[in-house]
Amino acid sequence: MAGPGEKPSSTSANGNGTKAPPPPAAPGGSGIAKRLPRLAFVFLLAVLYRQLQAPPPKICGSPDGPPITGTRIRLSDGRHLAYHESGVPKEQANHKIIFVHGFDSCRYDALRVSPELTQELGIYILSFDRPGYGESDPHPARTEKSIALDIAELADSLHLGSRFYLVGFSMGGEIMWSCLKHIPHRLAGVSILGPVGNYWWSGFPSNVSWDAWYQQTPQDQWAVRVAHHAPWLAYWWNTQKLFPASSVISFNPAIFSREDMAMIPKFASRPCSSKARQQGEHESLHRDMTVGFGKWGWSPLEMENPFPGDEADVHLWHGAEDLIVPVSLSRHIAERLPWVRYHELPTAGHLFPVADGMGDVILRTMLLGEN
Predict the structure, then answer these.
(1) Residue 41 has what pLDDT?
(2) Residue ranges of region Disordered (predicted)?
């Protein structure tokens, strides 16, 4: 110990003669600097995640959603389906038909049938908003099978009887295959109009699927590829502005044939053209794509005849000039499935069901066997 007037010794406090270790360095900016790249990476991930997430749908009847203006039924799982009835009263009908609308459409887009034929044959037509469209509640767990079960439940709720006819157009046409597989015992006859085809269904030879694939615009090839391989990217892909997304969603004129262009004014003036997407594009358009072009656990090309006793007929119609859904897919399906009666329209495009008088032709063929 140092005495009075003496300088302290440089030895440690325990007096063993060793020097004391230097005190630890005070915390400075170097630690934060090391953490900045990690924090920036986490921040970017959070921003990216937010960009990929679709906004919640605006449910009809909710405080922030569109109003409910039509008639709806409540399904067993709590969802609602909005529907529209036309033709003769169902109690007087000889033929009860459910129409399934296509992409970016709604319940008012049912097949156009003349009043004369409606009265002559006693036709009742029920059309409905598919889940997420118009005023029908979204179905986040929607699959190719669930819509077929929805149709059967809708028919039961409205007391259509044990069997009814089905007509489906475009994406609604693709749904006809699911109905033929899952509810054939409920069907009196089916008309499949310009159906979307899934390029990944087994049974398509590679030359057929690839030829059809390259008939799409490049932007649609990418949109369909994303819907199949990365459905979680569908919202971002079809809403980002870096490069063109689905040309069908944007209504690109390049996808319409000459006859389609003549139909567009009639198609664009539909009653619900502004309401089909009103609950949000993701639960209507994008989910339609991810289901339609998704990974099905079976293929329509490998189906057995659902009506081995000729209980019902299946008619497949397609326009040879269809630039949206390549006709080669339907041609091959008709070749593989001899129980399907195929009708190809040589000059028609995708919108042929809208043409004057075409609805009558389709129903006369299905209901009366006329060609």
Answers:
(1) 55
(2) 1-31
Residue 29, pLDDT score: 52
pLDDT of res. 273: 72
Instruction: Return the pLDDT at 71.
Output: 97
How many of the other CB atoms lie within 10 Å of CB of 228?
18
Are 221 and 248 contacting, i.e. CB atoms less than 8 angstroms apart?
no
Asked if residues 85 and 72 have their Cβ atoms less than 8 Å apart, the reply is no
CATH class of 70-366: alpha beta
Task: Provide the token pair at 191.
Answer: 């008309």
Residue 296 backbone dihedrals phi, psi, to 5 degrees:
-75, 150
**Alpha helix stretches (DSSP H) within 254-357:** 258-268, 281, 287-292, 327-336
Q: How far apart are the first and last CA of the chain?
A: 119
Alpha-carbon distances, residue 362 vs 21, 89, 114, 350, 370 (angstroms): 96, 21, 12, 15, 9
Q: Are 94 and 118 in contact (CB under 8 A)?
A: no
| Rounded Cα distance, 165 and 187, in Å | 6
Residues of the chain with pLDDT under 50: 1-15, 28
Taking Cα atoms as reference points, which of 84, 66, 195 lies closest to residue 129? Answer: 84
pTM: predicted TM-score of the whole model, two decimal places = 0.86
Query: Cα 144 to chain center, whole Å?
Result: 10
The number of C-alpha atoms within 13 Å of 86 and in the hemisphere containing its C-beta is 17
What secondary structure does DSSP assign to 80-127, as a single string? EEEEEEEES-GGG-SEEEEEE--TT--TT-PPP--HHHHHHHTEEEEE
> How many residues make up the chain in this entry?
371
Q: Which of 191, 203, 231, 198 is nearest to 316 (CA)?
A: 191
